[in-house]
Amino acid sequence: MTTINKDEIVDEANCSETKLHEEKKEDEEDEDLRKLLVPDVQNLPLTPPSAVESNFATYFAPDFMKPGHDQYVYRHANGLCVIGLAPSHVAFKDEGGITAVDFNVGKSDRSGMKVTGKRKKNAQHFESNTALCKISTKNDTYIVRCCVKGSLLEVNQQLIKQPELLNVSADREGYIAIIMPKPVDWLKVKASLVSLQEYKKLKEVS
Amino acid sequence: MEKKEDELQEVLRALPSDAVKDLLSHQVCARCILRVFGVQGRAYASPSLSSLFAQHSQTQLCRLCLGILQFTYSDDTKTLLQNDNLPLLIAQTVQRQAYHFHSFSLEVSIPPIVLDNDNSLRSYMKTKYGSQPWFQQNLHIGCISAKDALKFSLVYPLEDLLECKSSMGPFRIRLTFCHAKASKGDEKCSDGAESCKRRKIGMSKIVAGPVFGERPTSSSVENDSSDCCEFLLEKANEPCHLTYFCYRTPFYFGGRYLKYSRNVSQTRWIIDDERMGEASVEEIIGGNILQACQGDSFKFHAAGREDIDVRMLGPGRPFIVEVQNARHIPSELSVKDMEKTINSMEFSLNKLVKVKNLKLVGSDGWNLMREGEAEKQKQYAALVWISRPIKDEDFQCVSSLKDLKVLQRTPIRVLHRRSPLEREKIIHWMTMETIAGSSQYFLLHLCTQAGTYIKEFVHGDLGRTHPSIGSILGCRAEILQLDVTDIKMECFLT
């Protein structure tokens, strides 16, 4: 812009100039942001680790209290344990797989408890051999147990209406319960659990 | 100087001499006499004040103010001090601390018993001199409080010594006088029950006279109705204990921060003596500001937070750094320098944190940040992988969902410290962006309600967040990376 001009013209010109300048700056920032967001495809793994693999340490309890009753324990860094059926559980061998899940075992209906608050009030304290639920197949029923001594925070209520979740994805959406053990109790039970590698060897599962 | 002395003489001459003599004989000090008669201002600061009442010895502790207005007190070593140069002492202490300031504000705290004494005296004066014309005239001014009188006696000399004005501001000088006999209401005496009863009748009936140790006589006076004009304030045996110090009220710095690293936590995070991540936003920003202001400590407050492995990009997240007891007052230029210093910090050649629009904010900066924090929307970009190749229909499927309601049970990763609840959150909009060279990865841009757990919305958290990207696309979905791309709040944008 030339320096000698009538005031109005200068102002107007400056106005649209600064506006243009601002828009340009915004575009630059957007472009910078885009560059940051797009990943380098070369570095992306073909199959990334799953959320469970990334966030939990996986253990197994083979033949828990009874042969063939294989369960898994996913332990999070914060101490919480997710309990579920391992792929080699005897129930899966029955024709038609699992048809029903009932949390009404032992003295209470596990699906009825209400745990509240940060301190997890009203959570029941269970031993590792306490029954969590009964799973039924066409011809049989099996008891699923806690495996880990601790407070029961949650059971997977979806299983009541959708027991087929166990057949399709027992390792994720078909989890059975979440338990919070005390650090001392975890150390005790950890000694009796096996790693994924050991489990595979034991059960000759691929 | 002389003019001030003349003014003081005039003020003194105007006082009713019989009442003044009466008070002096009862060991009321010079400044207390001035304040009983409603005098205000520089008279209290006059150095020749005590000599003008010279005919009466002022060596005993004033019964009204317990020596406070006589600048008589005990210090930490329990030494009794009388120092007409108290303003000088205070000024020297202040100067030693190396604060920069443009003004100072004097804060004074005195034991409540002084107020009780004032009330006792007032009833005595009313009884004895109530009919005098000067008393009637004085009524509308009343007695000046000991606090105000003390301020008058200190503020003027301090203004001269510190070479600046006294006014409300962040730099404060605090004086605290304590006395063993905190107030007459103290139930320290063995006559607990009796004095208790008396107090229950009502505050207006002050028990004048000794409450501690000695038996109260039956002629304890109640105000107004008594004929007895006895001056009942007891002798002051102990001076007050004085402590003083200066400080600055907190400075607040507001701005927005960006976090470029996936290994930097927002706040200092230490587990079992080990630091998580290589640094924290809080320490990088707060540490720099603290250093520049020469403060004692800082507090870092942000509008929300992001995980250590989540970058904060775009316009940045609003934050406030609160600095305690800053010795320096930052100028606009020095604030810009702080910003430059923070932005040029690098850890192993990588820029970790960037600060924008850093400036000093008043207390309203606080409200700006907290206001609507829970309502504001946030925008994200997530790198998502699905277990099957992306189909054309997927894009439309995802974009068509507006204000999608999602039910999230408390994610397992925070379930150990948060209440197990089911929270309904809203995903306002989503778009999928392809990544060249990949058939199963894409960038998911989404805008959500504050408080939504994005990672769980992608992978489903074992089905505890529903719907999820996986359930919407009918396959397994995993999230590899997450970035915050916008925080839709209005504060600290310039």
From TrEMBL, chain A:
It comes from the Eukaryota. InterPro entries: Abitram (IPR039169), GCV_H/Fam206 (IPR033753), Single_hybrid_motif (IPR011053). GO terms for cellular component: nucleus. Residues 13-32 are annotated as: Disordered. Transmembrane segments: none annotated. Belongs to the ABITRAM family. This is Protein Abitram. It comes from Cajanus cajan (Pigeon pea).
UniProtKB/TrEMBL annotation, chain B:
GO terms for molecular function: RNA binding; tRNA pseudouridine(55) synthase activity. It is an enzyme of class 5 (isomerase). The keyword Isomerase applies. Its EC number is 5.4.99.25. Residues 252-487 form the Pus10-like C-terminal domain. Gene3D superfamilies: 3.30.70.2510, 3.30.70.3190. One of its GO terms (biological process) is tRNA pseudouridine synthesis. It comes from the Eukaryota. Keywords: Isomerase, tRNA processing. Belongs to the pseudouridine synthase Pus10 family. This is tRNA pseudouridine(55) synthase. It comes from Cajanus cajan (Pigeon pea).
